[in-house]
Specification:
This protein has 494 residues and is α+β, with helices and mostly antiparallel strands. It has one domain: Cytochrome-c3 Hydrogenase, chain B. It is built from 13 helices and 15 strands. Strand 4 and strand 5 form a beta hairpin. It is globular and about 65 Å long.
């Protein structure tokens, strides 16, 4: 017997996501993920000054604004034909790194841990699905206390970012050509002091808690595999190479397919809209992309487009970055950290393609990044330039490819008469939560849900655990406006 199970909205993620599944004989046999809000940023940017893109595109999301700031600034770097000096490159990395750390800690403690830990009987720990809580009460209580501690730690990460970004969320200092902040001894010291606090939490609280849950819920290392094709643009520039595909990054750019690595060619990325509420053409590259909403489209079920690379579905995010690092083996620190964690949990590399694998890769990545940042901040040269000069071109095109904490993030711009002609953003959750395309291929999250065990349709906790392991950010993937520009609410701020 088939049973339709709908979670709408799926809570404890960024934004609003509807997940619809069909369960037969205790197993998910069909799945759809629907982003239920419309994003209108592409229309908002058309006709504006190109420099506005860095500030406006950050407003896609309050959790990962730094990634949009960097991607937008790199998009303009590319269009203007410039690269930041070393200080600008390093400071961008530090701003983005602080945002990665707070985002990963947010994901585990405030979005995911409560899927596995029974909290007290008051919000935000209730309401909840009442099933499959396996941890002893003393262990649950300890992780719940870390839930509260993590709130304070995330403040430290925001403060650390603000040392160089000016403020958080929505940093003020990232610009085309680098940054506007002048480094000082006090700023370097303040940043490093907070980073040491974060490293202590990552090493002694975050990683151990992930390992505890991984031990107890080892069956979730076999659940939620998904498409097993991985894509990463890479993140954290280590040199000033103008061509992004040749640039050295802490997390490298590549595709993982059938056990091997392949290059990334931005020209081979397209977007399918056959199941999305748009009447734009399908299979356009983002550089030529259109965003024409059609909320009454009969065959549509989401506001998310379906990004594809050579018509194939890819997963993006920490799992993709970890699998690429393991396959490339150019960073022994990252490789050893992942392999050590797998050994501790008595798991194999194949188990990374799972709910527990995604959570594990995210935690290990946080440590790798924090340790790298402790070295980068000491590479700043106080008297050196932080930005490169540029001249606004009359006509230009550019793109910025950069991994946000949740995965591959791309911004594309077309400049005409020194104004924005077109702007498109393809964000991580658009990749992961994409709908079926016109070839019938389900998106990465939809594929991960197929085969999921659902013992009780009233408490489909496995469905929630799988979706949340991707750390969806619907705020980035879609945004709320009304198609006819209807005034929703007017507020006076005093």
């Amino acid at each position: 017997m088939k049973t339709r199970v709908v979670i709408d909205p799926l809570t404890r993620i960024e934004g609003h996501l509807k997940v619809e599944t069909v369960v037969e004989d205790g197993v998910v046999v069909e799945a759809r993920a629907s982003g239920t809000l419309y994003r209108g940023f592409e229309q908002m940017l058309s006709g504006r000054e190109p420099l506005d893109a860095v500030q406006l595109m950050q407003r896609l999301c309050g959790v990962c604004p730094s990634a949009h700031a960097v991607a937008a600034s790199q998009c303009l770097d590319n269009a203007f034909g410039i690269m930041p000096p070393n200080n600008g490159r390093i400071i961008r990395n530090l701003i983005q790194g602080a945002n990665y750390i707070q985002s990963h800690i947010l994901h585990f403690y405030h979005l995911v841990a409560l899927d596995f830990v029974r909290g007290p009987e008051f919000p935000p720990f209730v309401p909840r699905y009442e099933a499959d809580y396996r941890l002893p009460k003393t262990t649950s209580d300890q992780i719940v206390s870390h839930y509260v501690q993590a709130l304070h730690i995330r403040v430290k990460a925001h403060e650390m970012s603000a040392v160089f970004s000016g403020k958080m969320p929505h940093c003020a200092s990232v610009v085309p050509g680098g940054v506007t902040v002048t480094p000082t001894v006090d700023k370097v010291t303040t940043f490093l002091w907070r980073l040491k606090e974060l490293q202590d939490f990552i090493n002694n609280v975050y990683l151990p808690d992930v390992m505890i849950i991984g031990e107890v819920y080892r069956d979730y290392a076999d659940i939620g595999a998904g498409c097993k094709k991985m894509l990463s643009y890479g993140a954290f520039d280590l040199d000033n190479e103008p061509l992004v595909s040749k640039r050295q990054r802490l997390f490298g750019m590549a595709r993982y397919v059938n056990g091997g690595l392949l290059p990334v060619d931005p020209a081979k990325i397209t977007e399918d809209v056959s199941a999305a509420w748009y009447r734009s053409a399908s299979h356009l590259s983002p550089a030529a992309g259109e965003t024409v909403p059609d909320p009454k489209k009969a065959e549509g079920y989401t506001w998310l487009k379906a990004p594809r690379y050579e018509n194939a579905v890819y997963e993006v995010g920490p799992l993709a970055r970890a699998v690429i690092a393991l396959t490339r083996r150019s960073d022994p620190v990252h490789v050893n950290a992942i392999e050590s964690a797998l050994s501790h949990l008595r798991l194999q590399r194949e188990n990374l393609f799972s709910v527990m694998g995604r959570n594990l890769c995210r935690a290990v990545e946080t440590k790798i990044l924090a340790d790298a940042m402790a070295k980068w901040v000491l590479q700043i040269k106080l008297d050196d330039a932080v930005a490169s000069d540029y001249k606004m071109p009359e006509t230009a095109q550019g793109y910025g490819l950069w991994d946000a904490s949740r995965g591959a993030l791309g911004h594309w711009i077309s400049i005409r008469n020194k104004l924005i002609g077109k702007y498109q953003a393809v964000v991580p959750t658009t990749w992961n939560a994409s709908p079926h395309d016109d070839k019938g291929q389900a998106g990465a999250i939809e594929q991960a849900l197929i085969g999921a065990p659902v013992k009780d349709v009233e408490h489909p906790f496995s469905v929630a655990r799988i979706v949340r392991s991707f750390d969806p950010c619907i705020a980035c993937a879609v945004h709320l406006v009304t198609a006819r520009g209807k005034l929703l609410r007017k507020m006076n701020v005093v």
